[in-house]
UniProtKB/TrEMBL annotation, chains A, B, C, D:
GO molecular function, one term: threonine aldolase activity
Enzyme type, top EC level: lyase
UniProtKB keywords: Lyase, Pyridoxal phosphate
Protein name from the UniProt record: Threonine aldolase
Cofactor: pyridoxal 5'-phosphate
Originating organism: Paenibacillus hunanensis
InterPro entries: ArAA_b-elim_lyase/Thr_aldolase, PyrdxlP-dep_Trfase, PyrdxlP-dep_Trfase_major, PyrdxlP-dep_Trfase_small
Family: Belongs to the threonine aldolase family.
Gene3D superfamilies with a match to the protein in the record: Aspartate Aminotransferase, domain 1 (3.90.1150.10), Type I PLP-dependent aspartate aminotransferase-like (Major domain) (3.40.640.10)
Domain Aromatic amino acid beta-eliminating lyase/threonine aldolase: 5-262
Length: 353, 353, 353, 353
């Protein structure tokens, strides 16, 4: 079985493993104030082109989201997100468990627009009984989205302008940020992202690390006391160095983007192979997740050799499936998949979506 | 600087690192249902002498405590703990952040007694307005305690009997459980512990792993849906295998106890060295943490070469300090410390505690 | 200005005020264990035809909803509700503030169906990663709904059957329960309601009392320790007698239904007056809230003399408005309104909804 | 049985009842923005000598405490309070249920000092691992305390100075504030209190109203969005007028102080009667609660005719008991009690406290 079901089926990039082994006996302080964390912070500040940002390392995405969001909102405030956002659907109510409602906006491709945020904001404040309604307190987006799509520079700029107008901090979940930056359709840089939001995180777990997410606070007002929050929400590792070593390795000489580019290239080969056979896609993704729509016959055939995710039923005969690539995806395994796709029957027509 | 300040100053035991490197490219499912986790679970079930226990892997101690405790209590219930308990003093209010009060019992050595629990229980239920008071809902203890002391078999048995009488689940925080089991004064086994509580955890972070704690649910009634809770509280690693590999290594052939015994032996050498010079101790510890009371002159002298924790001021001239050993403590570094201690002036008399 | 904007524009029914004045100097115990509360409980048990139910008095609807719901759910569970449900839209995130997500189902008229609950339930448990998703833990409905519509006997029976099959406690928000029971279209009784759910409340605030809601626990499993929860959530009045006196008065000789019938009769007169002129309605309500759709010219004309709620814009020229009646609605004021409606221009055609 | 067990055994002062009856049919807006609430707010602003304060009406004390405190703290912060404080012991963990730890300070008489707050503050910030400890975020005191004692002007001034130095908002629980102001030992005024804290509440429930507490925000920074919080925590009454009418009546022409003075005078008569017989007191109270220490024989004798609270066992033969007076306490009933006390045997000697 060749696994394309997710971008976390292996351990970590070998350079990370080597560094962890090489430094294993070095003695350091605990809780993320060691030299590795410090150097990793510095590399990330440089990569963001902003020496003033605060950088913290947490363990996983759900933990990062709940810690950041609950550190920003007051009790009566909620976080605006796409109805498909990870916090809204795949975190077992972690945000609500910290006391906050998620104010969902409709979205098919995983993105939300400045206009939608503006409308929700107006709707709230124009309501005569707005004190009976959860107040919008911040905005959450994912880059790339859970559907593999990405915000363009113009879209992000428009969104952030509205957020700033209404004093709604913008938080970007970058669990797969590298894959957005590596997309051929991307027109954003890490520096620009750090200018177009208040706080974001650079995902490690899904981009080559064993685990770990680097939170970057840009907005000074939100920085205060965040280490308390990390500790309270269970995200402060005693051996914090483990996170530092990984992000140091990912950012000291470009490994993060190298890994991301590799994964995206392989994903696009899979995309192109499906497209060549006439298959269509559930989302227009140019990142490391691809969502071809296949008949159930094709699905069963692919399943005999590959593991992938069943994404959603499209009609009685067809489903969207998800193929993921990562730092660890082997070119020859993609070769094999691409060859097998080339043997598939052209997709039967969909009963109109 | 030789570090004795904590038991998490290095990475992980080399056998763990080797296994992680060796398995790095193996593809597995995510979220803790991979083969490594399964094997680790089986080893732990066997070590506990109970095939029916549920075993889950979380990342750190605070996370484990808040996840377990909030999974057990109803909203109006609190958890009974020593006033010195980790949850009461060193977790930034993580338990309260899940909505629950900690009902603290006085303790000097870190332990609580069956009689104290009985008294608090009676006090609550005899109060005419008990509905205005947080209801005791479970009991938390640490083995060993934060002060290095351990519960004897008789003490634990007595405590658990009271807990069972009053339907108060007993939870043991075993962040350093190995060091209790390795103590020369210990008369408990892992099997017996698994019979004398409802849920406990076997600490990895402080006993040779990079990070990770293995929660063991003994009481059937408390097992339900715990994986949801792990996810909600941010403890479910995408690459859950990392925890499985570590616990598999620690439990497949006795490494956990081997590591623990080494640390305790070295700690007792330090203890004996201080005692030989006439120093007294803040707590009567036979585990990997030692708390000698030293004059501030001695303290300053030791500081030039060793790092350790300043525990608490005892009087104007003296403080208790903490030396920690671990799997990584090197015998020759302890030799050096022991020699240096032997040169210290006998402790000046304390202004009576 | 004649107010039809809500059912809480006046104080309490005069018989309640009289009783409160008459008993003002009687000395009682506090916190709801006085003789008035006891008698009120007994009247309600009798009205429900079930001597085994537990009855508690709380102050308001949001408080009651958050106290009941948070007493039932475990942390990883959410409450299923219509997207229009009061808890979902008009309680400033009170449910989320207790840690729980609201799992909303689409609804136009305010009701949800057994089939919808069944589907959401299946969707959850069929998801391979259901532990990453908030688990459905109970069902919330309102009778009548926020839109004035009511569940029929058959609908409620079907819903409760599904709930029982899946161990999902069913909770009915009866903020305006009397108005449902007084509807000419109603085929349920209080006794039958007490058989077709696990817990519900009989609203006082909007049905003749100064304030107060009577929670009725039918399901034994949910009864435990609810007084602790009332206290913790701020709902336990020191002078609990105030609630007891009111519910005693409402239930000792039929005042609750008398008041409800009066309000519904007056509401139906308003409905009929609008209908006679050809106006249509946003919802098909037979209870004390009526939602005619009027042109903005009509709206402005009515506004000069009456206060009512602007419910929602229907198209550029039309809006739905809400007229509420209550125990205090005066017949001659409705006469006046009815006469004025009869003078209105027949409604201009809607741009197709 | 003559009841002295609490200050909430009757309804409300007759002038309040009369006003409620007289205004019962007046139609108003809901949710506390009616004319009665507005006038009550204005009277309170005037009484506080500060036109800029924000005044809100809530229903009860626990609700007020949890709403105010959770509106001020960030998640990692706790509230400093006396170990005997109402929030620490008699609110079923309501504060913790909003996510916050109570940082208790030892206190025998119910008061805390500026020095204690200073010490706790220093202890926190001097701790090298302070991020692992709940951060002190505000200070809670009660005036009078739960033990009937009061802060002097000098004590409050000193406390507030420390609070301001460390940016710790000071919140005063004034559930019985009138009784402090009416004490012969009091040297504070409402105006001065409004200068020496950031937010406080003027209790109605225990001082003549049916229920209701008036929260006064002095500090501008804390005022924002408090109505959202009231709604979310269940404290916003639909018929908010009920609270407005009561506070209007209490503050329009001095009723609040009139009622308070009556209660304190009667309490002091009881105190003097016990003192005259040689009884001692558990606390040195000059307010409406008195805590004589009596032998169990005396206790049993008193019990045959009067109800009062059993406060705490003092030794095997003696207990402290509590007598409460209120607006409703009848002079002739106190006459009777005073006469009966005069017949009691002088108190037997206590086994040394």
């Amino acid at each position: 079985m060749i696994r394309f079901e997710s971008d976390y089926t292996e351990g970590a990039h070998e350079r990370i493993m080597n560094k962890m082994v090489a430094t294993n006996r070095v003695q350091t302080s605990g809780y993320g104030v060691d030299e590795y964390c410090e150097r990793a912070r510095q590399y990330i500040r440089t990569a963001c082109g902003n020496e003033a940002v605060d950088v913290h390392f947490l363990v996983g995405g759900t933990q990062t989201n709940m810690t950041v969001i609950s550190s920003i909102l007051r009790p009566h405030q909620g976080v605006i997100a796409a109805v498909t956002g990870h916090i809204a659907v795949h975190e077992t109510g972690a945000i609500e468990a910290t006391g906050h409602k998620i104010l969902t906006l409709p979205s098919d491709d995983g993105k939300i627009t400045a206009a939608q945020v503006q409308q929700l904001y107006e709707q709230h404040w124009n309501d005569a009984t707005h004190e009976h309604i959860t107040q919008p307190g911040m905005v959450y987006i994912s880059q790339p989205t859970e559907n593999g799509t990405i915000y363009s520079h113009a879209e992000l700029e428009a969104l952030y302008e509205i957020c700033q107008q209404h004093d709604l901090p913008l938080y970007i979940d970058g669990a797969r940020l590298g894959y957005a930056l590596a997309s051929p359709e991307n027109d954003l840089t890490l520096e620009r992202i750090a200018e177009l939001c208040d706080v974001f995180y650079i995902g490690g777990t899904k981009v080559g690390a064993l685990m770990g997410e680097a939170v970057v606070f840009v907005n000074d007002r939100l920085k205060k006391d965040f280490r308390y929050l990390i500790k309270q929400r269970g995200g402060m590792l005693a051996k914090g160095r483990i996170l530092g070593i990984q992000f140091e390795t990912l950012f000291e000489d470009g490994l993060y983007m190298e890994v991301s580019q590799h994964a995206v290239q392989q994903a696009l080969r899979i995309r192109d192979a499906f497209a060549a056979q006439g298959f269509t896609f559930r989302y227009d993704s140019s990142t490391n997740q691809q969502f071809p729509i296949v008949s159930h016959e094709v699905l069963d055939k692919l399943r005999t050799k590959y593991s992938f995710s069943l994404w959603e039923k499209v009609d009685e005969q067809h489903s969207a499936i998800r193929f993921c690539t990562s730092w660890a995806t082997q070119v020859q395994q993609v070769d094999e998949l691409v060859n097998d796709i080339a043997q598939l029957e052209p997709v039967s027509s969909l009963t109109g979506r």
